[in-house]
Design brief:
There is one protein chain. This protein is an alpha/beta fold and 307 residues long. The chain folds into 2 domains: 4-221, P-loop containing nucleotide triphosphate hydrolases (Rossmann fold), CATH 3.40.50.300; 225-305, Alpha-Beta Plaits. It contains 10 helices and 14 strands. A 6-stranded mixed β-sheet has the order 6-7-8-3-9-10, sandwiched between helices. Strands 2-1-4-5 form a 4-stranded antiparallel β-sheet. Strand 9 and strand 10 form a beta hairpin. The radius of gyration is 24 Å and the shape is elongated.
Length: 307
């Protein structure tokens, strides 16, 4: 049974803006699920409905088998949320605000657990600091600590790397991996697509309130990715030879390289035929390079196709 199940979910705001259009999605326990989409696509609205912050229009959402409307206390107890906004009590100490968050969920005091969270997030030496004295990246870590304080089984990270420097980001993703290894389900939205490419087990793409694709990362790269074969020449190639007319090739501006684009799922016959054609055309290349589409390339292509 999925840990989160969404069926026919819609949301239209009073202004008439249709934020979500018949969303159907299952998220499995223990996976890292990346939700990608441009600004205004509906990512935050979807997260806020699951977390009980925004009421849905129509449809049903369950978390751990609990309906997020009818059984909201049980559903919410399973969920930790790290929002985009750095909203927390600026005059409290790090220790006090994280401990208070744990108490809000009726959990008994557990100083050893709070200490572990703060150490994992490199916040231990800041535990007595007031939050207003911290950098933006450290405040983001405090939000993560608060979200983890009640030991949730599901963790939402809404743009968690915004305003975080490279070193803090690296630590944060190490922590996300360890949480996943401990059985926590992670759902993240991010603009850092290379992080989704590195971290996610599955990827969902949302655009204009609709889920346009959900795939395992490997299957997505296999189905929609493209490869390019680049050949480099010592002397400029004045024009593309007639022998290559059947192949999608492009000459560089300096005419010293030729790029052949082909599908990842190709069995390789196309590449072999292309290289044979290069030989028949009498072109001698000095170097060869292959490049595969990144997840970002695929994402941009998907969104363009739907606009």
């Amino acid at each position: 049974m999925p840990i989160i199940s969404i069926r026919d979910l819609t949301k239209t705001y009073d202004s008439g803006f249709e934020a979500l259009k018949s969303i159907n999605l299952d998220i499995e326990a223990g996976e890292i699920f990346a939700l990608l989409g441009p600004n205004g696509a509906g990512k935050t609205t979807l997260i806020n409905i699951i977390c009980g912050i925004v009421r849905p229009g129509t449809g049903h959402v369950t978390a751990g088998g609990h309906d997020v409307i009818r059984d909201y206390r049980a559903a919410r107890a399973l969920i930790g949320l790290v929002p985009q906004e750095l909203a927390t009590d600026m005059f409290e100490s790090v220790w006090d605000t994280v401990s208070f968050s744990r108490g809000l969920f009726g959990k008994p005091k557990n100083p050893a657990y709070i200490e572990k969270i703060l150490k994992d997030l490199s916040l231990w030496d800041k535990k007595d600091n007031r939050i207003r004295t911290l950098s933006g990246g450290m405040k983001r870590r405090v939000l993560i600590a608060k979200a983890l304080s009640h030991e949730p089984r599901i963790l939402f990270l809404d743009e968690p790397s915004a305003g975080v420097d490279v070193e803090l980001r690296r630590d944060m993703w190490a922590m996300v991996r360890s949480l996943r290894d401990a059985g926590v389900t992670i759902i993240l939205t991010t603009h850092y697509i290379e992080e989704a490419e590195e971290m996610a087990d599955r990827v969902g793409v949302i655009n204009k309130g609709e889920i346009i694709l959900v795939e395992t990362k490997a299957a997505l790269m296999q189905k929609l990715g493209k490869k390019q074969l680049k050949l480099f020449f010592d002397a400029p190639v004045l024009q593309i030879p007639a022998a290559l007319a059947a192949y999608p090739v492009e000459l560089s501006d300096d005419r010293k390289s030729l790029t052949y684009t082909y599908d990842v799922k190709s069995d390789g016959a196309g590449v072999a035929g292309f290289l044979d054609a290069i030989g028949h055309a009498g072109l001698a290349f000095r170097d060869i390079q292959t490049v595969q589409s990144s997840l970002e390339d695929i994402f941009v292509d998907l969104v363009k196709a739907r606009t």
